[in-house]
Amino acid sequence: MRHVIITVFVTIFSCSQAQNDWALGLRLGDPTGFTTKKFMGKTAIEINVGRTYMFYSRPHEKYFYDWYKGKKYGYHEIQYLAYRRSMPMTIQLHFYLQNPISSFAGEDTEGLAWYAGGGLQFRSQTYRYDYRYKSAPNSGWIYVTGERVTDIDLGIDGTIGLEYKFEDLPISIMGDINLFLELVDTPSVWLQGSVGVRYHLSGK
Fold first, then answer.
1. Collapsing DSSP states into helix, strand and coil, what is residue 89?
2. What's the domain count of the chain?
3. In tens digits, what is the pLDDT along the chain, a chain of 204 residues?
4. In whole angstroms, what is the distance from residue 103 CA to residue 133 CA?
5. What's the CATH number where 39 sits?
């Protein structure tokens, strides 16, 4: 996963050097990490790479037993002992409709816009489980330490947010809410949200 993230970030940076309608920055929230956005008039494309599960995590003991049931080892008895995990990472690819807000409550809001859209999200995390099991009713415990399990999630996002571009600085600030519908491997719904800041390479 680390190599994938590095490759994506290098590709983004290379593209941004060749185009002046890109903005690079940082997100804080879920995910926390790098963000880059290509503006195309009334539409935009954004790629986010960073850490997810910032405010919550899965119940690891339950996830262990779900994993074990899927393996169907057929042990007579099994007990979860402990786990270690890698940093949970995510990649998001989003397409947005950009909607300028020229005024609000009678006040000029030049530079303010709301955006809405969505796209794909990929997550990956590695666990190492310690557990013990009995292969027969009267057998002794057999201990397993550090069995590696890779959790890969894939699904679709729906996003809505606000963005403000400063008039005299090549800087914008943003905040959005994202609803992640996980389709693989554990169908579920996750609520995410981030705030961030970007530097516009055009300097405008």
1. strand
2. 1
3. 555 555 555 555 555 444 558 999 999 999 999 999 999 989 999 999 999 988 776 677 888 888 888 776 778 889 999 999 999 999 999 999 999 987 554 555 788 999 999 999 999 999 999 999 998 888 999 999 999 999 899 999 999 999 999 988 999 999 999 999 999 988 999 999 999 999 999 866
4. 66
5. 2.40.160.20
